[in-house]
Amino acid sequence: MFFDLVSGIFSNDMAIDLGTANTLVYVRGKGVILSEPSVVAVKTDLKRGPRIVAVGRDAKKMLGRTPDNIRAIRPMKDGVIADFEVTEVMLKHFIFKIHHRRFLVKPRIVVCVPSGITQVEMRAVRDAAKSAGAREVYLVEEPLAAAIGANLPITEPTSSMIVDIGGGTTEVAIISMSDVVYSKSLRVAGDKIDTAIIRYIKQKYSLLIGERTAEMIKMAIGSACQQREESVIEVKGRDLIAGIPKVIAIHSGEVTDAIAEPIRAILETIKTALEQTPPELASDIVDRGIVLTGGGSLLKNLDEVIRRDTGLPVVVADDPLSTVVVGSGIIFENFSVLKDVLVRC
Q: What is the pTM of this model?
């Protein structure tokens, strides 16, 4: 009883966007104070067993560049926990980094989860947060958190459409009266776009590149549609025929062709959501349009492609990378009004 009281006094409520690509943390009263890649480097030692050598940004630098006894692991896959123990270590590291050596801190934590998450996956998220030091754990569906972070009127009897494109999942949802009217979680997002680029370059140029290089290509010259003026970038990799390092030039038009399939899957999911929307709510979307959030929404011309395909207004949130975690944090700031959107574990 006494310990719970002291923990409550010293704790800071936190919101965590536990993403496939990045983990962001919002602390009540302070805003977003941490944004790190969801990567952990683990070293295998025959005498001491596995041990953590790096977490976050430092670990991401090691992706594809480690010796055999060190593995750079991404413990999240498709928006859910793929490696429970490593996720727990990662969460503990980030919480400790925020609170430093305040051992009494046991915060209330709200964690964002995909709308299509199963009960088993939900329990894994809860248990990981509890093991990392949380006093209470709440879950919130990512589309709801994104809508709150984008300042959409979710408590009103009008509909809003949100498309959150992260690293592992694309969340498409219609929201009204603080609840999800329709949602679809598609396990096609930033990672699948990167994989499509890797596959294209391998098939066309017999060149093997890594995840970091594919992500760099996407961010530098990637586009959801063909552009009048093409951009070119040099790409380094390993020639699969000669077995030696090689440099090639890739055009932006090639990248557009490479990522056409995952972009098409996202578009089809958006159109399916619109088809499933009740008529009265559909009329609101015609007026308000579609709001894009998540890192994937930064892909060049994606908003234009969605606008052209649906005939609806499309807007990208002001800070799409942090919209979800900011929305989750706002829940704690306005707990009495928004607590109904939470799922308490």
A: 0.89
